[in-house]
Each structure stands twice: as structure tokens, then as C-alpha cells.
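Q: I have 196 residues here and want to know how they pack in 3D. Can you give me a structure?
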Amino acid sequence: MTADLSQHDSFDDSSASPTGLSSSEAARRLAEVGPNEVVESPEHPLRRTLRHFWSPVPWMLEVTIQLQLATSERLEAMMVAALLLINVGLAMAQEGRASATLALLRRRLAPRARVRRGGAWLDVAAAVLVPGDVVQLSLGGIVRADARLLSGSLTLDQSMPRGRLAGRPTPERWCAEARRWPRSPPPAPELLRPCR
């Protein structure tokens, strides 16, 4: 069962308002809920190193080393082991440079959002969006967080499969409806309704 709400009533759940949160309230909520981003857990260096020994080329070199040792050809086994270690070292160096480049790109291309704080529109990093923020969407924009559409309508392009939002051949126009759900919101396709 759902109950329709006015735009003003739809803010009761998050104690926000149409003028947006104050900077202090946004900072408090950010400390409470954390940043609006997916945090990648870094791979342990030992695991990252061992991963370079676990692929077909290193396996061949490892088998070669064992065969050389079994036939008492220690010098050849040491040369192959040196090649294996050089191979792993070069792979780790390349991976390190690629990771550093990706980290730089992520920082430079960090998503931004236009948010209303204290009655004024500000351009902020999407990572600092918190529940209750009023976010402005524009043509061609990407929704940077879970959001409730307060007014207007939007066209959703759901032609690319994304979880349960899959398989619509053309973009469709959807409209805002302030709704209250008894326990938790339904899955994403039920949050908006097609415009009538």
C-alpha cells in the first residue's frame, strides 16, 4: 500500500527541505553515513606478487625449473628462475604505473553534482552527497546517487541492461510522484511512474 505525499511532506523522512541542507547538517550527515562512493579495497602486496606467478607463462617456466633441477642442470635452472623473476618484476612495474595512471584519472574525472546547500546551488564532488540533499539534474546528466524526483519529468534510457532495469528499446519519459512506502522502497523500476 502506498500513500501520495505533497512535495513538502516528502522531505519528512530525511528532515531536509526544498531549500537544501545547511553546510553543517550536510557535514554531520557525511560523518554519519560516509562518502557517496564505492571504496575499493587495496590488494595485499604479497597476494599481488603471487598472482604474477599464477598464469600459463610462469607455470611453464616453473615446470622448466623443476625439470632442470631433476636432471641436475642447476645453472640452467638458475637462469630460468632469473628470467621468471625478471618477468614478474617487469609485470609488477607495469601494473604499478597503470594503477597510478588510473588513480590520477579517477581524481581528475571525479563525478560532480549540483546540490542545494543553505539555499544556494553549489557544484560539489558527488562523494559528499548525503541523504536529504536536493540535487539538480540537467539534460544529459548522470544521477550521482539515489534520488527522489521532486518536480518535473525525465527521460530514462534503459536500453542498456543494468540490473533489473533492462531491455527497453527506446528512452521513456517518467514523472515525479512523491510516494511513501511502508517499509523500504521497492526496486528501482517502481520508484518512478510513466507520465500520463
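Q: Anything worth noting?
A: The longest strand covers residues 112-117. Confidence is low (pLDDT under 50) at residues 1-11, 178-191.
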